[in-house]
Amino acid sequence: MEACSLPVEVWRVILAYLPLPDLGRCCQVCRAWRELVLSLDNTRWRQLCLGCPECRHPNWPSRPDQEPPSWREALKQHALCTRTWTLNGPELQSSACLLLFFRRRKDRRVWHVGPGCEFETLRGAIGVAGPYDRVVLHPGVYEEQAEVVLKVPVELVGLGRLGEVALLVCLEQQCPTARLCNLVFMPPWFSTVVYKTSWGHVQLDNCNFEGVQLQIRGPGTCQARFCSFSQGSSAHLLGVVLSLLDSCDFSGSDAASITVEGPPVYEKNWACKHLAALVRTFPSCGPSGDRCHLGSPLTGTAGGHQTPTADAKKEHASTEDWLRRVGVEAECQGTVIDGDWSDGDRSEGEEEHRGAGGTNDGKNPLGSDYKVPCDQHGLSHLLKLQADGSLPVASSPDLPSVSPVPLTFQQELDRDPEAQALATSTLGCILRRCLFREGKGGVHLSNFGQARLEGNVFRGLNYAVRCIQNSTLVMLRNEVCECRASGVFLRLSAEGLIAQNNIHSNAEAGLDIRKGANPIILCNKIHSGLRSGVVVLGNGKGSIRSNQIYNNKEAGVYILFSGNPVVCGNHIFRGQAAGIAINENGRGMITENVIKENQWGGVDIRRGGDPVLKNNHICYGFSDGVVVGERGRGLIEGNHVYCNKGCGVWVMSSSLPQLLGNYITHNCMYGLAVFCRKDPENTEARDGNWPGQEGEAGGVEGREEEGDEREGQENLNEEGELFAWESDLDSEEKRHSARRPVSVALVESNCMSYNRAVGLYVKSSQPLNVFGNLVNSNRGTGVAVLQSGQLTRLVNNCILGNGRGGITVEKDCRVELRGNGVYKNSGHGVAFCGNGQIVENDVVGNRGYGIQVSGSADIKGHPGNRKALLNLDPGNESCVLRNNSVLRHNSCKSAPPWVLENPPPRPLASSPSGLSQYPSRLGISVTTRISATVESVCHGGSMFCSIL
Fold it and tell me: How many CB atoms lie within 10 A of CB 272?
């Protein structure tokens, strides 16, 4: 009969009545019949799978409401798993193997136990059972007063529904294999251990354990499926090579539900290879449908902007359009070119001669006027158009449009052989699709134990996983939530791989890494915690990469007490505190992360914190981008800090950070602010009311208060334990041996552009070095020094096109200005009221005075000096002084252009053909310049200043 002679619907109805063996035979008739049989997945195959007394719903216990991809495949997987205990035949001799095979198929005997049956006690039936016989227990309660020993392979099966057959017995297995199915185990009066084996294999299908222990000792193995462990029940695996617990339910534990202790023994029993093969046939499982890549859980952002994408279009702009947008006019506002300098006091004749020479007699031909090409200085590559016609980040008024995207799990495995080896490992205890709920602990590994956890759910426990004492943990695609302490603990040199997990809503940290633990943490979602997302402390290490860490109440990643992790490629966002906090001598290599939309600083470094912070995007924060608080240290290099509502970088003067090559742009307050601890209120700074800076944005209050609040984060000791962390701290000498020593805070080669207030704001009581920075197009002054109890050195910086003055130095500030280029600012080039030196600077094209020196300033340090601040050297015949004075500026739109081609302006790289990423690190060219002496500027030396 051909399949096409009847409608397909009729054939499906007919085939739906066939039992499983007949369906298999129909599949072998022809291809058309096979397709018909396979099409019964949601009808007949589903009935067969759920009707099996030894099988529960394929997604039990964690997600019984979700349909499996294929009911037929689920039934097939169950059939393969139930046969594992019978696969030990190859260990026997050939003749015995044939006989055993024959007995399994034909001569297996079935013994019935119960009232009115062959045996009334379990001990009696086991005593007469032969190899691989089945012992069927009828409904009832069976209790034995002493331990029962299994000496031959046997199968114990409960008849009826689960719960109708209960055993109060302790079984010890002394045979190669055994199977227990559809039974309820309760503790006998003399022991809480109901089953134990030290060398054989036991298979547990659809059993309940109530208040008892299951004990497996290597080289023994265990395979448990669809089992329930309740009322304090637990499984203890000691030195096991391989055991598999699949789709089990653990609830109400008094301690850990599963304890894995000791390294796998060298000896293996016959079942290890079959269990390993079975594990490899399992499909990939995940708690939330995730497979290889964790996409962003949120489509928008708190600030209303869209998350930047890698395919964002870059705007092409011409130089004229850029100049028009940033508001820089091309016309000259007047020129002062100074003459030679002299260290000593001049004679009266010289003064008269210089005074006479100070007026322009018209001998200079206007056709050879002098102009300083300030677009050719050593930092000009940060302002020029790129090869594709776009503007570089430093000079673009547009927001950065590209941010890194986390790598997928497969990409991480491809570049990390160690993680790849861990992801494919199958040693120790393997837990799949289990549910751990409402108990004290989930899984505990100790003393070189090994475990692999895949697709499990941990909910409502004190802790989900604890891995200590050199143990190895592999966690893939688990859900860890609502723990009363931290979700996952790793300490005492524990290691392993934690990847693609959903860790959320825990009372303490999602991951707690301490005391030399060194895990690999990849592509997880760690969110909505009541404390921090990840905590690394007490010499903890670890590699934390490509995770999404968001919406935690405290820091997304918290590093303290000599914690030293690698934090790379993560997205850390929408935290209610800092994105990353480094405190109490914490360290760490923090690179290529996207840290955004956090309530406190994107990165907060305090009290001895000393990280390496490189190439991160720190943006859209509701406070400052980077905060370096009291005694903070660290190397902060190559980061993009932008669009934060506070400062780009906030530094306390008692700290010693190194800021190198950062892009600090488009922040709502200062680009970089340095404050004193003794002035925590910073009232003038908050209100923007310091002299010459009325009306600028404020809001730097509360850093100290935030620091006090952050101290509450340090209560991270589990269960009230107290530790003497001082014994774990590395020595200062060891910690800083691999880094350039720093005794003064260093700000070098940074770009501070398009911030809404001052580019660099200094109110410090400690020395500060500011070298080779580009301070460009900020709404306020380029550099403002309001307080400087010790020397602040501004060397080789380019201060260009800022909305107010270029450099402002207030009264009593100790400042050295050397080799800076101050170009095209909307106010005075340099307004100096403090004490210090102004040496070899170019002050060109500013709309106010070139250099304005207050009468109270002590530049030269000679009180009562009455000499003119600007003097013209008659020996320098090419000097031109036109349309400018020190105290009054004459605007002259009709003035001809100014030109000065030799020497080129400062700051200048010594190798113009090969500009470095950090040009200030190159040698600075010092040449004889057309210059005028600022007579009261030098402390025992001289300076060359071009003032145009």
Answer: 20
Distances (CA, A) of 139 to 202, 204, 379, 408, 906: 23, 19, 87, 52, 96
pLDDT digits (tens, 9 = 90+) for 99-120: 444 344 456 799 999 998 989 9
Half-sphere exposure of 482 (CA within 13 A, CB side): 9
Positive or negative CA dihedral for 162, 167, 168, 173? negative
172 phi and psi angles, rounded to 5 deg: -115, 125
Residue 50, pLDDT score: 73
Tell me the residue type at 147: E
Prior bond of 61 cis (ω within 30°):
yes
* pLDDT digit string, tens, across residues 126-150: 999 999 999 999 999 999 999 999 9
415 near 229, Cβ under 8 Å? no
**71-82 and 271-281 are packed helices; what angle lies between their axes, rounded to 10 degrees?**
170
How many of the other CB atoms lie within 10 Å of CB of 103? 15
Give the residue from 263, 258, 266, 273 showing the smallest Cα distance to 450. 263
Whether the predicted pLDDT of 681 surpasses 80: no
Q: What is the chain's percent helix, strand, coil content, to nearest 5? A: 15, 30, 55
Amino acid identity of 440?
K
In this structure, the number of other CB atoms found within 10 A of the CB of residue 309 comes to 11
Q: In this structure, what is the dihedral angle of CA atoms 614, 617, 619, 621, given to the nearest 10 degrees?
A: -60
Taking the C-alpha atoms of 130, 135, 141 and 147 in order, what is their torsion angle to the nearest 10 degrees?
30
Asked if residues 232 and 210 have their Cβ atoms less than 8 Å apart, the reply is no
Encoding tokens for residue 263? Answer: 């390294």
Query: How far, in Å, are 104, 223, 445, 474 from residue 451 at the CA level?
Result: 34, 14, 8, 6
Query: Under a CB-based contact definition with an 8 Å cutoff, are residues 935 and 869 in contact?
Result: yes
* Alpha helices by DSSP H, 282-347: 319-326
Lowest mean pLDDT among 160-174, 266-280, 370-384, 541-555: 370-384
Rg (CA), the chain: 38
3-state secondary structure 414-451: HHCHHHHHHHCCCCEEEEECCEEECCCEEEEEECCCEE
- 373 pLDDT above the threshold of 70: no
Lowest mean pLDDT among 150-159, 560-569, 843-852: 843-852
3-state class (DSSP) for residue 273:
helix
Cα distances (Å, whole numbers) of residue 481 to 97, 579, 852: 49, 21, 63
Question: Average of pLDDT values for 455-474?
Answer: 96
Which of 830, 671, 831 lies closest to 757 in space, CA to CA? 671
DSSP codes joined into one string, 570-592: -EEES-SS-SEEE-TT---EEES
pLDDT-above-70 percentage for the chain: 68
| pLDDT at residue 598, as a whole number | 96
CA distances (Å), 435 to each of 103, 226, 458, 512, 819, in order? 38, 11, 6, 22, 68
d(CA 778, CA 806): 10
The helix or strand, by DSSP H or E, that contains position 396, with its residue range, turns out to be none
DSSP per residue over 147-173, as a string?
-EEE-S-EEEEE-SSTTSEEEE--EEE
Q: Which residues contact 269 (CB under 8 A, 6 or more apart)?
A: 176, 199, 200, 201, 219, 220, 221, 241
Of residues 616, 621, 629, 572, the one with CA closest to residue 598:
621
Give dist(CA 4, CA 11) in Å, integer: 9
- pTM of this prediction? 0.78
Task: State CA 312 to chain mean position distance.
Answer: 24
909 half-sphere exposure, CB direction, 13 A CA radius = 20
Q: Answer whether 885's CB lies under 8 Å from 875's CB.
A: no
Whether residue 571 has pLDDT greater than 90:
yes
pLDDT at position 834 = 86
